[in-house]
Amino acid sequence: MEANFIKGIVNHHRKNLLLTYTLVLIEKLGELSIPFFLVLSIDGLIKQNFIPILYLVVVYLIWATIGTIRHRYDTKTYTNIYNQVVFDLIGNDKDPNTSKIAAHATLIREVVDFMEFDMVYIATAFINIIGAMAMIATYSIDVVLLCLTLMVPVLYLSKGYGLSMRELSQKKNSELEKQVDVISNGNILETKHHFNILRIIQIRISNKEATNYWQLQLVSLVLLIGSLLIMGFKGAVQAGALVAMWSYLLTFLNGLEIIPYSIQRWSNLKDIINRIRK
Predict the structure, then answer these.
(1) CB under 8 Å, gap of 24 or more: what pairs does 158-162 form?
(2) Which of 24, 25, 32, 114 is the Cys-Cys partner for 131 at CB 3.0 to 4.6 Å?
(3) How many CA atoms, within 13 angstroms, populate the side-chain half-sphere of residue 38?
């Protein structure tokens, strides 16, 4: 049901979204290519060859230009989507509960934000993980195998994290649906209780995020140290290759960090769409 809701929005705005996500893809591929040209520049400097630096400058400027165009285009696309979805909601909602309608209008903002930001993050994670491993493979297959091995605990931890965040998101959204009514009633004690519940839920969410962050950093440390040891045991390594390897490892880790975040956001999105469509 959640996928159908998103699919309906995508079909209605498919041309604009296709252009947006195409720009995202080109931008991320350009970002992945920068370390490669950086390696060429470093190796070129060692040999007193400055031509590769020009290649790096050109690629970097193209990447930055595409990113700028995408950011400017994004705002127009997603504000139009938000307005259209909200107008449809208000026009079709037969529930006389003003508090729920107001809450749903706010929650729709999160749906649009998911499409504008989170889908980009998810696409970025996929491109970073696949692209980084493909580039790392040109330097060391053993490091790629280490990357694949460490994805197993990340996926396992992300599953538990997603279940916990789904429960907390449901509680938070349930409270938000009551907010307008609670404030309108003018009961100070009831209002304090409502916001105190939201505060407690937010603290629990933050604690879960902090724990997940710590676990991911441990995985990152194992990968970085393990990769350095693997490269070190291979003997002499060019400076440019080490810089590129380190850059692609960080890109890969950035992709891994988005996995639990994406699961959290999808869990929240499912709950929001269920509420909107009731």
Answers:
(1) 158/259, 158/260, 158/263, 159/263, 161/208, 161/212, 161/260, 161/263, 161/264, 162/260, 162/263, 162/264, 162/266, 162/267
(2) 32
(3) 17
What pTM value is reported for the model? 0.66
**Identity (one letter) of the amino acid at 140?**
S
Residue pair 99/178 in contact by the 8 Å Cβ criterion: yes
| Nearby residues of 111 by Cβ (< 8 Å), 6 or more positions away | 5, 6, 9, 85, 269, 272, 273, 276
SS3 content of the chain, % helix, strand, coil (to 5): 90, 0, 10
Q: Which two tokens stand for residue 123?
A: 């696409």
pLDDT at position 36:
81
User: By the 8 A CB rule, do 255 and 125 touch?
Assistant: yes
H-helix or E-strand containing 85? helix 51-92
CA distance 121 to 118: 5
Residue with token string 């290519």: 33
State both tokens at 265: 């956001």
**How confident is the model at residue 52, as a pLDDT?**
86
Least confident span in 106-110, 126-130, 163-167, 171-175: 106-110
pLDDT confidence tier of residue 148, bands split at 50, 70 and 90 = very high
How many angstroms separate the Cα of 60 from the Cα of each of 44, 64, 88, 132, 253? 17, 6, 42, 18, 22
